[in-house]
Amino acid sequence: MTEPVDVLLIGGGVMSATLGTFISELEPDWTIEVYERLGDVALESSNAWNNAGTGHAALCELNYMPAAADGSVDPAKAISINEQFQLSRQFWASLVERGILDEPSTFINSTPHMTFVRGEKDVAYLKSRYEALKTQPLFAGIEYSEDSRVINQWAPLLMQKRLASDEPFAATRVPAGTDVDFGALTRQLFDNLQHRGGRVVTDRQVTGLKKLKDGTWEVSWRNQVGRTPGKTRARFVFVGAGGWAIKLLQKSGIPEIKGYGVFPIGGQWLKTSNPSLVAQHRAKVYSQASVGAPPMSVPHLDTRVVDGETSLLFGPFATFSPKFLKRGSIFDIIAQVRPGNLWPMLKVAIDNPSLIRYLVGELLKSKKRKVDSLRTFMPTAKDDDWILLNAGQRAQVMKKDPDKGGVLQFGTEVVSSADGTIAGLLGASPGASTAVSIMLNILKSSFPDRIGDWEGTLRELIPSYGGHLNGDPDAARQSLAHTASSLALKA
């Protein structure tokens, strides 16, 4: 019998690339293999055009700080998301310094993060949010204004035809925000992994997972070219297959996956490469979500830098497909059903009628109506300047809840076996931006006997590993300055 590989990563996205990079740094002698069913890596959720590219640090995303019934806002979750993104920044900065990642501008660029709201209620909320964040060390430099002239300087496209309006509006701005090309980042990480001896196999679809008596996993697969089957044994398996992760985790038979289901939500962008428009907007501008809309559908007008070319995106607009991936199966949504997750999924459907109405409304929108939605941000938008672009599929987590029976969760969730030999990732945003934090947690839970020995290397890669930057203003300031310098970003 052939010797098992030490680590098998299923899926060629940023999560597998990040975990593989960690393992190659921590255990250079371990054997690592990656199986991707498509013809190249980073073609699904990690692809630049399948996501917004926002370096999610809670600088502009309002859903991380919802207002309480009394109008108060709690910055705790926003701080937590920002802390996680700082781990990613530190890791990427270390990899640039080591020559593992290319010139930073190939995957990350300075792009101010803004929030823009209209109406007295939302203006009051945004002011409260600003007051809660302005003293937090990780949010240093956040600016607030209700002055149309100031907002016009920050983002002219927002204010054209609006300067003389009596409607109250306000905006916040953090110059140190970023735009990230997760596709380019993923490809660079995998290139390095292969350079260090890792094996990345494309056009290979995993068809089964079986735990053997010796504790290893037998991974069945089929090559897409020639349809030849095969099997690989692995000591540890990570399932980073996006929306298909649930299918593979169900095949593994681990009890921890029982009760989970996923609900697919697709998306579309409006995109323009018109140089005169692109030149007037250098920011990612988020606003409030529509009533009933999922957090991933918060409208935003974004600068994107992909392969050195700058363009603007607006959206996302929700679409629906039963597929869990853009290149998935139309039977995905049915094939996931098990006795243990049927009731939680039904309860989610019963308890979220506003989401269903929202999705139906989105599906009925023509391109003209979508441009009309853009005009709430950019009053001068013209239909002919914008094209529709399909975004990626997001598989939102549905799971058991002791009180409600089932809940729809917006975020990411790790599902691991009790013995730590297999782990997978379900869910969506903030996903890629917090990949480093998520993979650190997997390292701790899956390799508890090794994590202590790894701490020195982890601190070299991530100086704030094990600590909290926001509680130490000097450390936060130094980290932001150091990573900005290494990644060629605005401090």
TrEMBL record:
<dbReference type="GO" id="GO:0008924">
    <property type="term" value="F:L-malate dehydrogenase (quinone) activity"/>
</dbReference>
<protein>
    <recommendedName>
        <fullName>Probable malate:quinone oxidoreductase</fullName>
        <ecNumber>1.1.5.4</ecNumber>
    </recommendedName>
</protein>
<keyword id="KW-0285">Flavoprotein</keyword>
<keyword id="KW-0560">Oxidoreductase</keyword>
<dbReference type="GO" id="GO:0006099">
    <property type="term" value="P:tricarboxylic acid cycle"/>
</dbReference>
<dbReference type="GO" id="GO:0047545">
    <property type="term" value="F:(S)-2-hydroxyglutarate dehydrogenase activity"/>
</dbReference>
<dbReference type="Pfam" id="PF06039">
    <property type="entry name" value="Mqo"/>
</dbReference>
<comment type="pathway">
    <text>Carbohydrate metabolism; tricarboxylic acid cycle; oxaloacetate from (S)-malate (quinone route): step 1/1.</text>
</comment>
<comment type="similarity">
    <text>Belongs to the MQO family.</text>
</comment>
<dbReference type="InterPro" id="IPR006231">
    <property type="entry name" value="MQO"/>
</dbReference>
<keyword id="KW-0274">FAD</keyword>
<keyword id="KW-0816">Tricarboxylic acid cycle</keyword>
<dbReference type="InterPro" id="IPR036188">
    <property type="entry name" value="FAD/NAD-bd_sf"/>
</dbReference>
